[in-house]
Structures are given as C-alpha cells and as structure tokens.
Amino acid sequence: MESLDWLIIGGGIHGVHIAARLVGEAGVKADRLRILDPGERLLERWRTSTTTTGMTHLRSSSVHHLDLDPWSLQHFAIKRRKRTSDLFAFPHNRPALALFNAHSENVIARFDLADLHIQARANRCSIDSEEIGVQLSDGRDISARNIVLALGTSEQPYWPDWAPQEDARVHHVFEPEFDGWPSSTETVVVVGGGITAAQIALRLLNEGHRVHVVSRHPMRQHHFDSDPGWLGPRYMAGFNRERDLDRRRAWITRARRRGSVPPGIRRVMLSAIEDDQVCWHEDEVESLDGHGAEIQLRLSNKAGLTADRVLLATGFASHRPGGTMIDELIASASLPCASCGYPVVDSALRWHPGVYVSGPLAELELGPVARNIAGARRAGDRLVEAIHSNSTAASSA
Ligand SMILES: Cc1cc2nc3c(=O)[nH]c(=O)nc-3n(C[C@H](O)[C@H](O)[C@H](O)COP(=O)(O)OP(=O)(O)OC[C@H]3O[C@@H](n4cnc5c(N)ncnc54)[C@H](O)[C@@H]3O)c2cc1C
Fold first, then answer.
1. Does residue 104's CB lie within 6 angstroms of at least one atom of ligand 1?
2. What is residue 171's predicted lDDT score, i.e. its pLDDT?
3. What does CATH list as the number for 170-222+257-312?
C-alpha cells in the first residue's frame, strides 16, 4: 500500500492552490504528496463549468488566483504582454478567464502538480491511530498521515423538484459532462436569476437562439457574491468572535448574495430585455410537461411557456458535499458537525488530527468567502501556518 505524508482529495481550484502552498511554502516534499481527482486533468470541473457559461472574465479580482504571491497573476500578464488593459476588466481588475487559466496552468507546471495527480475518486476513508486509509475507485488503497478534503460542490448541481433528470431536453448547465447545448436554432428557457443564468442567456442570444429567462426575483446587482468586507477583519472579526455555529451559518446565508449579477452583465441583460431579444419572466416554474414535441412549462402565475429545451442555471445544492464517503468518515470517527451538517473544525481547519478541510467544508471557520478563490487562499494560509507551528514545536521538543 502506498504511504504518503499528504493526500489532497479534490483537484479543483482549492486542491490545486493548497498543493502549491504545501510544496512551495510549507516545505512538503512533492514525492510525499498526491492529489486525487476523477478528472482527466486537474481543474477539469472549473474549466468545463466556466466554458459552458461563456464568461469572459472572472467575477473576483486579480489577487485571487492559484499561485503563492498575490501579485503573481499581474506579473504573469505583464510578462506576456506589454499592454495589459485588455487582460483585466474594470472595475476591480478582474482577470480574463483565458489569462486566469493560462496562469493556473503555469502554477501547475512550475510545481509539477500534474505528476502528482491520481485520476480516481476516494470511495472510502478510515482513520486509524497514525494514518488515514483511503480506498480508491480504481481498487487501490493509499494511506496518508494527513488528508485535505477539498471536495467542492461541483458534483451536486441543484435540480428543482419539477425538473425531470431523465428528459434529454432538460439539462443542468453544471451537470458532469454537460452536453445540453443546442446545435440548431431553438427556443430555450433558462431557469435562474443569478450571474450564470444571465451569462447563459447572453451566450444563447449571441448564438441566435430565442431566449426566455425565468427568475423568482428581479435582477439583483452586486459586484461580488459577498461584500469585500468578508475578506478581512471588517466583518470576519465579529464572525470569529461568534461561538454559536447556528448563528455563524445564519451570517453566511445572509452574506452570500446568491442570485446576483455584477453591473456590467446586468447592463447588457437589461438592454437585451428592452430590445425584446431576451424575454424575462419574474416567476417560478410549477410544473413541466415533457410529452410531445415541445416542452410545456407552467408558471406560478398560471401563464405557460413553450420551449424546445430547458437549461437550469440554479446553482448547487446547499447540503454538505462528499456524500457517503464523508457520512461514513463522520460515523467512523465521531467527527463533530454543526446542526447544518457542516464540519466543526479548529482554526487550523483540522477536523481530526490529520484531517483538514477547505472550500465549503471549511465554511463555518472561514466564513462566506470559503468557497471562492479567496477562500482557497485563506485555507492555504491556515494550513501553512499549522505545518510551520507543528515543525517549530517538534524541533523545540
Ligand atoms: C461558473 C463559475 C464561475 C466562478 N467564478 C468565480 C470567480 O470569478 N471568483 C471566485 O472567487 N469564485 C468563482 N467561482 C466559485 C468557486 O471559486 C469555484 O466554484 C471553484 O471551482 C471551487 O473550487 P473547488 O476546488 O472548491 O471545487 P470543485 O471545482 O468542485 O473541485 C472539487 C473537485 O473534487 C472532486 N471530488 C469530489 N469528490 C471527490 C472524491 N470523493 N474523490 C476525489 N475527488 C473528488 C470533484 O470531482 C472536483 O473535481 C465560480 C464558480 C463557478 C461555477
């Protein structure tokens, strides 16, 4: 059985950034670390979901990326091109997706992270006194002194109850291996009222389709999906002082601006709506009749919509990620969870000696930005600090 110092489970934005931090900053030897992810290559989920939306720029600013130095992405852009104004969008210096992806590949190459990728899933984890045993989907077993659970939510797109999963004309835009994009001109209903719904609607419009959007609320405008005050002590100081985890969960829910759109995209959408290019319905779908050549949607105001295709842009289910693998891990070691089901971890993001978390699983400790790229960087800070203080304690013992 292969034995490692560190195994990162999940090779998305979080897993890749943490791997870079462990190797580049915490002195972890690359040959003692692996990243487990079912994708053919690291960051596969990020690439497919961002490509599907047609987004051209990130929503976050240029200091949020996967490298160690916060200015690395800016320097990378300058090295590639003298004039960088077209690589970043105003305001907040938001990087172009192509630039962010090229920079992420550069980070992966510099730290040789692709060589550390094991293409498989963790089916089961069990904790024994010294190590964590991990059973892989390819039949192998690995043990590691430390694991980082960097699972993300990309495997749990949210399907409303009325939407049949077996109808080939109804798709969630974040489903794995999404292949629901229309190939010829169609009438498409996009369900959702946030940035993804708007981006999908605009992409469909540009490709010549007839587009309806059904959103439960009017278009809400926010630059970011939470207030930038959550990136520092302005709001985090109070969050850290709050010991009641139900209250922390309530803060996170209030702070995350689900279903919001940045001003630039809102402007383009409003003008498309005004010009009758996109039909915006502030309503809720009640039912879908999938029989016959066309799909019939009934809305709660009793109006009906007829479409060739329905694309769900309804985000991700809010329950704890990780499925039975995490359920069994919790049961086997009596790991503490708050009433919302999410891990109760210490300030080093340690759920149990040797078991660390990042992303949504770290939310009750890192607050509303935990899922974002900024959250990956915060998780990296905590892990590096924990490793350094462990080695200082060991050397002075
Ligand atoms: C379209 C889109 C645009 C976004 N834009 C921004 C932005 O501009 N700025 C920002 O800060 N945030 C943004 N986000 C939010 C967030 O940063 C991303 O969702 C990011 O991809 C989350 O990374 P992650 O590593 O937590 O999760 P994921 O991308 O979900 O990666 C987790 C990986 O873990 C794997 N995994 C799960 N279970 C197992 C298992 N049992 N064994 C092995 N592997 C497993 C999954 O297959 C997946 O590959 C965006 C999100 C989306 C969807």
1. no
2. 97
3. 3.50.50.60
Where do the structural domains in the chain lie, given as residue ranges?
Answer: 2-154+318-396, 170-222+257-312
State in Å: Cα 152 to ligand 1 middle.
Answer: 5
CA 297 – ligand 1 centroid, Å: 31
The residue assigned the tokens 């320097």 is 75
**Topology given in CATH for the domain delimited by 2-154+318-396:** FAD/NAD(P)-binding domain (3.50.50)
Residues 160-182 pLDDT 10s? 999 999 999 999 999 988 999 99
Give how far Cα 187 sits from Cα of 5, 20, 216, 277, 292, Å. 53, 44, 20, 12, 15
d(CA 18, CA 44): 16
193 lines ligand 1 (CB under 6 A): no
pTM equals 0.97
Q: Which of 154, 265, 369 to mutate to test the pocket of ligand 1 (most atoms within 8 A of CB)?
A: 154
In one letter, which amino acid is 42? L
Confidence of residue 393 (pLDDT cuts 50, 70, 90): confident
Nearest in space to 357 (alpha carbons), one of 367, 369, 343: 343
152 in contact with ligand 1, CB cutoff 6 A: yes
**132-141 residue pLDDT tens:** 999 999 999 9
Take atom 24 of ligand 1 and give the residue whose Cα is closest: 152
